[in-house]
Design goal:
Layout lengths: L7 E3 L5 E5 L8 E7 L2 E7 L16 E3 L3 E10 L7 E3 L2 H6 L7 E10 L6
Antiparallel strand pairs: 1-5, 2-3, 3-4, 6-7, 6-8
């Protein structure tokens, strides 16, 4: 269900503003999409569909999930056994086993919920 508290784009990638989710009729979600330097008013179903015939449209709403970034340090071991990540290099060094072959810094950038299907 579409919420004014979340961010959306169209399935085709256009920026979207949601004004209301409590309108009447088959298309109670009111908002606009940004195209060619202008906001264009339109409406969607409560499920974010542009057309109620249930076929996929480039104008359907898709939620934009928040992104997160962080740096981790991974102690690497032969064969990938017991590889383990840490938030600080100092922690990685403190918890390293004698068979460690590398300690690599990895920059993570991921969408909330990514890989949790």
């Amino acid at each position: 269900m579409i919420s004014k508290d979340k961010q959306y784009v169209t399935r085709g990638g256009l920026e979207v503003r949601i004004y209301a989710t409590d309108g009447l009729g088959e298309y109670p979600v009111h908002g606009a999409y940004w195209v060619h330097g202008n906001w264009v008013n339109t409406s969607w179903t409560l499920d974010g569909l542009y057309s109620s015939d249930l076929s996929s449209s480039k104008m359907d709403l898709v939620e934009v999930k928040p992104r997160h970034q962080r740096t981790v340090w991974i102690n690497c071991y032969p064969g990938g056994n017991n590889d383990c990540s840490h938030n600080k290099l100092e922690d990685a060094n403190r918890h390293a086993g004698p068979a460690r072959i590398a300690c690599i810094q990895v920059e993570l950038d991921f969408a909330e919920g990514e890989g949790l299907k």
